[in-house]
Amino acid sequence: MKHTIYLFNSYLKDCHKQNILKKENIPVLPEICEQFKKWMVYEKSYSNSKISRDINYCIKFLYWCKKNKRKIINKILPKEIEEFLFEKRKGMAGNRSIMTSLRTFLTFCYEKNITSQPLYFSVPTIKKRKYKDLPKAISEKEAIRYLSTINRSTACGKRLFAVSIIVYTYGVRIGQISKLKLEDVDWKANEIYFSALKGGKGTRHPLTSNVGNALLDYIKSARLRTLKYNEIFLTIRAPIIPVSSPLLRFYMYIFMKKYKINSPRRGACCFRHAFVSRLLESGNSFKHIADLLGHRYIDTTFIYSKIDYKSLKEVALDLPGEL
After folding, report:
1. How many structural domains compose the chain?
2. Domain holding 71: CATH number?
3. What is the pLDDT of residues 211-256, one digit of tens each?
4. CB count, 10 Å around CB of 318?
5. pTM value?
6. In angstroms, how far apart are the furthest CA atoms of the chain?
7. Whose CA is closest to 180, among 150, 207, 149, 147?
8. Helix crossing, 245-258 with 140-149: angle to 10°?
């Protein structure tokens, strides 16, 4: 429920400049935040999403310090960092985000001699078992039913179908689709390029006829013409701006829920996992799959080995006769 409210709030902020969620009245502290932002952009080359998240938690931390009469950042003690984390505690994922952002900010402070001690060691870590769950892939039958159910006679339907057929065909992340620009589609060479995300690599794929026709249908019939933005997927109603990845994910989630699409998870991730599942069933190597997914390290791809059921059956041992 909270996730749905968050996605709906993202839609209101993107399209109608409204925010239904109450937030603390946090003043902007430009000097150190601006330095922190430049450090992340030019020295660390972090993604825009991480920069935005870390700046947000940085402001909250500095505001908390000011509110509790700890105005000088270089006088902060490890005990006070723990107090802040305890006061701002959330769920498991929320705590991990706060700790990661705060650890990054304290690393910046130490490298720039703002603090004399490496306070980032004071931030605890939450251990996460990386391979504890099976990848949640939608079945081929349900994926086809999902695509065939979309009403392509409306502008929203054309956009949703174009986004969905891209996810189904190439297994890319929804963030890569939201960043897709007109120049990324090479109609003459029949290629489509997806920019890097999450520290991975950009990928280039052949432009299939299904994806090409869906993009042409959306661009010609549903996408409003504007010289301000080159992103392919824009909002349908004013203000005309690029559609954010949370909003695209929200559209897919709502549609799958409305039409009762049977899937372990609702959203784009299940189509990415299904894409890998098809590649494994076709006998593709993990190196090839890693290149298609844009993984910089092949270890990241090994999580999908758990959905290679055929190979797992081959290495399974027979049960002893007594059992």
Report:
1. 2
2. 1.10.150
3. 999 999 999 999 988 888 999 999 998 889 999 888 999 999 999 9
4. 6
5. 0.64
6. 74
7. 207
8. 100
